[in-house]
Design goal:
Mean pLDDT: 72
Strand content: under 5%
Number of helices: 3
Radius of gyration: 12 Å
Largest sheet: none
Oligomer: single chain
Low-confidence stretches: none
Shape: globular
């Protein structure tokens, strides 16, 4: 079930890269101050990976 959700999320990202990227950046801007260093790093790497995958 979790695998299907992940695939669905990936499909959504590839279908709407513009919207997905901008909502991710918005979430990042909101979440960053609330997270500790470890999770900030995880989020940053995730964001970078998604941006790289889209471009």
């Amino acid at each position: 079930m979790a695998k299907n959700d992940r695939l669905g999320a990936l499909a959504t990202l590839f279908l709407s890269p513009y919207v997905a990227t901008h909502s991710l950046f918005a979430y990042t801007a909101v979440l960053m101050p609330m997270l500790n260093k470890k999770w900030q790093m995880v989020l940053f790497i995730l964001l970078w990976a998604v941006t790289f995958a889209i471009s």
